[in-house]
Amino acid sequence: QVQLVESGGGLVQAGGSLRLSCAASGRTFSAYGMGWFRQAPGKEREFVAAVSWSGRSTYYADSVKGRFTISRDNAKNTVYLQMNSLKPEDTAVYYCAQQRRGYYSGSYYSQYEYEYWGQGTQVTVSS
Prior knowledge:
- The protein has strands spanning 3-7, 10-13, 18-25, 34-39, 46-51, 58-60, 68-73, 78-83, 92-99, 114-117, 121-126.
- It is an all-beta fold and 127 residues long.
- Strands 2, 4, 5, 6, 9, 10 and 11 form a seven-stranded mixed β-sheet that branches.
- A hairpin with a 6-residue loop joins strand 4 (34-39) and strand 5 (46-51).
């Protein structure tokens, strides 16, 4: 049984930083790409960032490029999302997700490529 547990959310002022963590268990972490998605009130869940199973490739939504950094530590079975220069529009529940297929080299942007999801962590950015 795969479990993903996010932490690190909270309330921060605009311009501030937060670091989200997602600890995974249940299958070989290093074989699967990982992603972060977010959902704001009244909006659909959207892609934020992803990292390949090897960690060599990263992918970002245009809205966070240059401000957010995704990374992974396969020894700790953990993926991180460093969020800098936060804006009020970044306010959302952030979810980490693990891809359906191991050693995958296809799209990292579609939520349908992800099989397991965490419970989410709230990020609120005040203006």
